[in-house]
Write a structure and sequence with these properties.
Length: 136
């Protein structure tokens, strides 16, 4: 099975970087092989429960581009898939993007970020971490 490079943001504020191999948006748990930075590190797999997670960020790189100022708003002429939305999390962070499958009764939904040149490819938002959701 193909691995996905993800940054997992937990509800308690912790961040874990690694590779998800069995992530399924309908299952309550998945394994994450943590990113290892030391030469003597060994690959460590941990079981994560969706009830502890705010969002999974599927990323291009773990480092990102610190100097890059990611666009947070839609521009006229943007090509979008799905509907434009704004998500406010329980920690008051707000993210805008597009989605084709929002249902608050599901475990979560995928959000496509506004800026295609940013580090985030897509985001899986866990429904229990959402304080407010609105279509734009």
């Amino acid at each position: 099975m193909e691995t996905a490079k993800v940054v997992v943001r937990l509800i308690d504020g912790r961040v874990i970087k690694g590779y998800a191999q069995n992530f399924n948006p309908t299952r309550p748990t998945f394994h994450l092989n943590e990113e290892q930075t030391g030469a003597l590190s060994h690959n460590q797999s941990i079981l994560l429960d969706m009830k502890d997670i705010k969002a999974l960020f599927f990323v291009k790189s773990f480092e990102g581009k610190r100097e890059y100022d990611e666009r947070k708003d839609f521009r006229e002429g943007d090509r979008v898939q799905g509907r434009k939305v704004e998500v406010a999390f329980i920690d008051n962070e707000i993210i805008r993007g597009t989605t084709v499958g929002y249902d608050p009764q599901r475990l979560g939904f995928f959000l496509i970020p506004i800026d295609p040149d940013g580090n985030n490819i897509r985001i899986f938002v866990v429904s229990t971490a959402v304080k407010n959701f609105r279509f734009l």
